[in-house]
Write the structure tokens for this entry.
Amino acid sequence: MIFSDETTIRMNSVKGQVWNLPGKKKVMRTVKHPLKVNVWGCFSARGFGRVVCFKENLNADLMCHIYKYGLLPTVRKQFGHDSTFSKLQEDNDPEHTSKKATTWRMNNNVEKINWPSMSPDIAPIENVWELLKMKLRKKKHSTYQSLVSSIKRQWKSLSQELAIKLVYGMNNRISELIESDGDFILY
């Protein structure tokens, strides 16, 4: 199984909570429209694959480009040229379900597993995005390119042990989701 997804990383984003004492206001400066990097990545129990950074909004054409230059090289490296040993997990974003992307996957023997529509984000790559964003918040970036470089460096530093734990933790995630009748779960 290869898990894949996209996320947006904003330059110098700060995430956290602020406690205000009664009668005292905390002023926090924010940037109205911070620079952002869209990121696609994938991984399996065999490790983290390619990561692709892009500025434009994702559409079917770009998705096919990412499949060709991000997904296929990962599949070949991790599973050899016979991609029938792997299956792709991705959510039901319109770019993934488009006729163009579906045809591309079919023509390139990429089998996608069925994923329920309107499903909670239980795919383990969601944890990877949060971990990556936490690491990136520790350093200030002054340019788009420095943020992209940091993203790629941090992605490359993710260990195969982490990938294995996340993949094999899916059984627990699914069990918890069933027990909660599809409601929110902590993971």
Remarks:
- The chain has one domain: 2-12+34-179.
- The beta strands are 2-10, 36-44, 47-54, 88-89.
- The chain has a mean pLDDT of 85.
